[in-house]
């Protein structure tokens, strides 16, 4: 019984550290943040933080993975909601986050990925090269399920629609992080995205 409690404690503690790190990255971005900043924010010792994370890059990867898991759970079946309602709600959620870009990790993400642009680091962190495909798989499965239940009559392959959706969201998020929501006209672009998704997915309800 003791090992189980220990594992639960470690899991809870790791999440607490990731949440503290997120607060630091939201304030400082990635390039200006330090492990010391995160220790101070979490109120832990150096040993306590390094027991979970090797360095800042490792910590940020773990944070990305945690955030991605939360996003993927959004596409689990929801009683009383159609698949079109679910995808619309997700798109609206993305819009809200992009419009308040300063409250998201978008800027930190941009800095982080640019810091790993050389091939050696990309090979050292395979999660960077697989996270995109994981989200493609989640969205593709969601669209396939909606098609199987008769909720969608897609005009393109579910995978093509998934890749298109991710590209539009990621591109708009990156542009807005650098230019601001007024310049990128987020609400207009998201309206256009929903229009195109409706045409591609052909929701029956």
What does this structure look like?
The protein has 205 residues and is an all-alpha fold. It has eleven helices and no strands. α5 packs parallel to α9, α5 packs antiparallel against α11 and α8 packs across α9.
Provide the domain count: 2
Q: Briefly, what CATH class of the largest domain?
A: Mainly Alpha
How many strands?
Answer: 0
Name of the CATH homologous superfamily of the largest domain = Tetracycline Repressor, domain 2
Rounded radius of gyration (Å): 19 Å
CATH fold assignment of the largest domain = Tetracycline Repressor, domain 2
Largest sheet: none
The percent range for helix content is over 70%
Beta strand %: under 5%
**Unreliable runs, pLDDT <50, ≥5 residues?**
none
* Overall pLDDT metric: 88
Instruction: Note the total helix count.
Output: 11
Elements, N to C (H/E): HHHHHHHHHHH
Overall 3D form:
globular
Q: Can you tell me the CATH architecture of the largest domain?
A: Orthogonal Bundle
Alpha-carbon distance between the two ends: 50 Å
* Estimated structural class: mainly alpha
């Amino acid at each position: 019984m003791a090992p189980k409690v220990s594992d639960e404690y470690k899991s809870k503690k790791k999440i607490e550290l990731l949440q503290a790190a997120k607060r630091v990255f939201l304030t400082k971005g990635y390039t200006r943040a330090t492990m010391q900043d995160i220790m101070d924010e979490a109120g832990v010792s150096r040993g306590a933080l390094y027991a979970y994370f090797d360095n800042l890059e490792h910590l940020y990867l773990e944070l990305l993975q945690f955030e991605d898991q939360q996003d993927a759970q959004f596409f689990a079946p929801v009683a009383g909601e159609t698949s079109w309602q679910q995808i619309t709600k997700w798109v609206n959620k993305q819009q809200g986050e992009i419009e308040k870009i300063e409250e998201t990790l978008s800027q930190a993400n941009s800095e982080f990925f640019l810091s790993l642009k050389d091939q050696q680091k990309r090979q050292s962190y395979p999660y960077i090269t697989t996270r995109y495909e994981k989200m493609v798989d989640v969205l593709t499965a969601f669209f396939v399920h909606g098609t199987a239940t008769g909720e969608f009559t897609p005009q393109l392959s579910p995978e093509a629609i998934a890749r298109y959706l991710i590209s539009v969201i990621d591109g708009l998020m990156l542009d807005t992080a650098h230019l601001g929501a007024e310049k990128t006209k987020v609400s207009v672009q998201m309206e256009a995205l929903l229009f195109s998704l409706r045409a591609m997915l052909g929701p029956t309800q």
